């Protein structure tokens, strides 16, 4: 493996140097780390057993929910990949990097992108999950995102050629849009977003475009929290309560339930303190009515997650989602100190750094046991990707969209001129990322098989109630 190019994060952006000088700086890095070095993936002899990593990352989770975690991961190699961010982070630490650091998503796979409404009620396309956000090598996000397309493509039974093309489009789109951002001022980059409707119009499949426009129309007509209130609650005397849907939505019972309710109430007060004054005034119009645990995602299963129902005096609801904030899977694999003592604050600040617009009620808190959480609105006109209906050309279009969104996010905390200088105008970088993605998809298949063997051996518990 080539020696790493040492380039400290804090010195990445030189406000005195011209764009041309910074572009040349990026070009010079190729002499130390050639672009084709990024195609390398070969498991080291001392590579950690992926099952051991899964077990380690389950420590401290709710033990009764672990069977749901492993059951979801065993559905397919793609589901496994979604829950195995810690495994890939450990592997990426063994790959060549340029030494250029910026704020990473950390769990950058294709299901963590989508459409949502900004506080101004505009629908944009962006990254929407930041549980693992942390400063690190910019290449790691691209490699995980591109690999997710190769693995999802296999899951959808597309050809190996198609899967490699999807990964290639991620890196090529990243390259093209990073070059565009390199020509903008820092302020222009900060203002930039990706309009969801305009993005859909770029596609060539009229059937998919019609389907997506209907989804946008439905999302635009969405009245925040009212549909959830009708679907997820019932009236218990004078009080609205969240419906149980075990094992995915449930109220903790007995003394434990009373303790959790008390802790949530305390945490809610601390959460309010993390918000700006104007948002505190807004939420002061509401009172906490009910709290329930909610199992979400794949990688998050087993962490303490739930929903709280707030009601105004005149009966308007707000649903908030709270998620446990644990150490980023990137942190143990990087020699970088976490500047935030509060893991919830790390997630919130990372999200604000990377997203074009964040949930206006995004904040952080902790309970009496010093467990960290972050809080946001449960749903806000979200438009998720529907992989099951995508044809090969739709997957390619979606790969381009995700590559674009990642470039925009990275351009905010990195130097797009340096990055563009390194990537250059040729296809060499995209070709390397595509080759890496196929190689790592093979590794993911092998790791998935090891997990299935561990399940058969009884090392990992599973549940049919998912």
UniProtKB/TrEMBL annotation:
Pfam families reported in the protein's UniProt record: DUF2252 (PF10009)
The name this protein goes by in its record: Uncharacterized conserved protein, DUF2252 family
Top-level taxon: Bacteria
Origin species: Flavobacterium pectinovorum
